[in-house]
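Appendix B. One record, verbatim.
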Amino acid sequence: MVIAAVYFVIATAAAVSLARSLDRQMEGPRLRAAWAGRTAEARCAGVRAEETQDADGIPVTVSHATLEFRTEAGRTVAFEERRRQLDVAEGDLVTVYYAEGAPGDATAQVPAFGTRRARELVAGLGCAFAVVTAAFLAGML
């Protein structure tokens, strides 16, 4: 029984740690702050093409749009959207999301359930798995 309890504590800590790491990698805190803040219409000021290679070594062209918008306070902010490849041309209008205190961290990425709740989903599923396997261990021992 003690082994199952120790396993449960370690597995739960690992699940929470993995969830936090995944959240940081997906830029969850920045995106959630932007989505909870304000929206604005941004104008595409330009599109920069970047040549990269995929996992198989095949050349791929990725474009990054530079977007400009004006905050409610009247400040003009320009940023390059790197999280999402936008299908926009120079002069097109795009809705952007930004946190009032950090408009430079704006994004054109539309709020998505998976991105907003990834941390909770991974931690919850990991903890549920820990409970099931700890109960199985307790029954076996």
